[in-house]
Amino acid sequence: MLLESTVIPVPSELVVSPAAYFAAEDGQLSIWLIILYGTLGADCGATINYIAGRYLGRPIIYRFANSKWGKMCLLNQEKVEKSEKYFDKNGATATLTGRLIPGIRHLISIPAGMARMNFWRFLFFTTLGAGVWNCILAALGWWLNSFVPREELEATIDRYSEYIKYVIFGLVALAIIYFVGKYLVKRSKEKRNKE
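The structure assignment produced for this chain is given below.
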């Protein structure tokens, strides 16, 4: 979870949901500890990004995002700028809501650091957002256990993986349409205001 909240692309869905699935099955894991430690890990990773944004500054962050290492972490300057714009538009609450948005979730701490947001306020909102996200993922894992027994889990994942890909692609396409539409509307308004 620490890695997921830094620039390294490790999806939290691969950590929390399976852990909750197994917690529901045999009770050897505590669902509450999964959420707690997942959230603490997210806080630690977000703090690393916050510190990098605060002390390294924009030029070094952009240089890293455009470097070979940044590309290996699926980063580029455009993604960092997008997270900055989201932070600028939504202010401190962006660290809360940004934790729930894929693609922004792991980067939102960087502009918070660059904006020199109060660290304790940043940590409060980050903990809240990460906690909500981890509760959602844990609930999904727990729910999955209620109708898919362990011996059928792998076969079920194989059977539905194609559908899952289509759903993910559909959600990404909807997000792109939304942001492009929003950009075009904003650009149109700016053009009308200039005339």
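Interim note for the steering committee: The chain has two domains: 3-147, 149-195. The chain has a mean pLDDT of 81.
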